[in-house]
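Per-residue structure
===
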Amino acid sequence: MDNTHITLEWRPELERPVLVAGFTGWNDAAEASSVAVGALSDSWEAKQFGSFDPEEFFDFQATRPQVRLVDGVTRTIDWPENMLSAATSDETGGRGMILLSGPEPNFRWRSFCDSVVTLARELEVELVVTMGALLADVPHSRPVMVSANAQDPALVEGLDLAASRYEGPTGITGVLHGLCAEQGLPSVSFWASVPHYLPSVPSAPAALSLLESFSNLLRVKVDTSQLEHSAESYQEQVSAAVSQDSDLAGYVQMLEERFDSQAGDPRDLPTGDDLAEELEDFLRDQRREEE
């Protein structure tokens, strides 16, 4: 493996780092995962330290570069690219954080993921976390459901996560998790379910739920005040729009009734503190095995 596809402006020195990835496109229904990763970057004031060569991974007819004016005069081209940023602060719980963001690549997924895992190894990353969102038969008026799964049997058992049973088309996150499993790099995938009748409306509630699951697992602080305000506006605006369409209102009511009938007892779920403690124990055991 190599990382010749990555240009590093500088190399971050991080303690017990976690790599967090979120891609726009197929993995990003209602822009929930990209908004979540963007919120992490803003909250922690992450600094870009590297990027992937877009020439290697993008079809520019499918993911077109954008022309913009600088100072209203000079035209410049912004190429699609996947960026790497680093952050460390009191809010990250003493951990270093690496954020990987950008569009889902069009080409050479295995080479792309090889480069990600190679860099993770070089920077001594302890855990890879991806965020995604999918369209589902869920109502906008209920809490966003977030599933957490892993391919590593020890991680699944140690954190009481789910081993993914999904079969069908996958995205870049699926390929990345598969390679992490092959290379023995622990990884967790969070997926938020967003209403399929709102595919193009950015979902602040889903992004907020992804961040809550992430922060509970890793015991890190994230400033979500702006997202919380956006989530309130989302609920108000969507509810108002749905009420104007009797057919859609009836359909949403049916989804609400089904959601309520299937809701489990929250006392059966592990708390965020429980998951965080179990994660620390798991990663500590991993470090001992590697010594």
